[in-house]
């Protein structure tokens, strides 16, 4: 798989959120390269853990902004965050219990997991925040 490249299409128009997203893409790319280079299972697990932990932090950052600016779709957005973290943790468990840690399907899942949320749900949040900040 190719690395993800930050592009304006991924921008939600709020610098602090975009900065978080850039960091998440950077960690995804570290993981992606580590998979291609066949790094140790322990290193891959640590990198995936970093990606998940940074995502959890980022989601709490977004949720704080939603509270501060009284975002009407906060409950739905937060529920999506919880589903995304749950699916990533399930993938993490699957990988940790496997002899062949990462497959192309795992990488594609993580890429979609990251970009689809940015392009849809976070895009709507960015539009809202752009109007109220």
TrEMBL record:
GO terms for molecular function: metal ion binding; oxygen carrier activity. CDD domains: Hemerythrin. SUPFAM superfamilies: Hemerythrin-like (SSF47188). It comes from the Bacteria. Keywords: Iron, Metal-binding, Oxygen transport, Transport. Residues 13-126 form the Hemerythrin-like domain. InterPro entries: Haemerythrin_Fe_BS (IPR016131), Hemerythrin (IPR050669), Hemerythrin-like (IPR012312), Hemerythrin-like_sf (IPR035938), Hemerythrin_metal-bd (IPR012827). Pfam families: Hemerythrin. Belongs to the hemerythrin family. This is Hemerythrin-like metal-binding domain protein.
């Amino acid at each position: 798989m190719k690395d993800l490249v930050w592009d304006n299409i991924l921008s939600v128009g709020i610098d602090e959120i975009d900065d978080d997203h850039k960091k998440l893409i950077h960690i995804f790319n570290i993981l992606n390269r580590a998979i291609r280079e066949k790094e140790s299972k322990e290193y891959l697990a640590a990198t995936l853990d970093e990606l998940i932990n940074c995502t959890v932090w980022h989601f709490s950052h977004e949720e704080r902004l939603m509270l501060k600016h009284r975002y009407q779709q906060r409950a739905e957005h937060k529920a999506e965050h919880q589903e995304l973290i749950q699916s990533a943790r399930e993938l993490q468990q699957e990988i940790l219990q496997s002899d062949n840690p990462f497959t192309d399907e795992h990488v594609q899942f993580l890429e979609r997991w990251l970009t689809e949320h940015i392009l849809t749900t976070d895009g709507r949040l960015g539009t809202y925040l752009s109007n109220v900040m």
